[in-house]
């Protein structure tokens, strides 16, 4: 079991994914992360995308702290089931349908948001959490970050959580790291979209 740290649903107990197939963000890291996000003033009314969501604790914390909408993206059946339970719990506590769950691979879900040439502009996000499994290589993560970069709102923020022993992510040209912080075995990387000059 875990809990929502603060906000309108602060103190609410949420389920964890059984077994060791996911790596929950510790309360210490979560508190530090959200303290930083609130200092940046990016959560209020934000559209939040929680990729590799696990139990959905980061996205749900964002909903408690004022996000406009949250989408939890997870592919593992057990984790999806826990995300659905937790989304229902927080939606009930907040008396709003703020948190939704999408089952599927992160890349396929991101592809569904991408702009369509000559068509719709696609779906965009203000805050994106990424806590990929440790076995995912930086080269694989780089391809996903390219897709994330295509669905960011102006002024958006991307938070990547990795092992402190893992090298810095390979950022796409349209995204720039502006901060990083180590908490024991965990390192958080903060990035934002940047304009890419036309050649």
From TrEMBL:
GO biological process, one term: rRNA methylation
Keywords from the UniProt entry: Methyltransferase, Transferase
Domain of life: Bacteria
A GO molecular-function descriptor: methyltransferase activity
PROSITE patterns named in the record: N6_MTASE
SUPFAM superfamilies for the chain: S-adenosyl-L-methionine-dependent methyltransferases
PANTHER family in UniProt: METHYLTRANSFERASE (PTHR43542)
Record's protein name: Methyltransferase
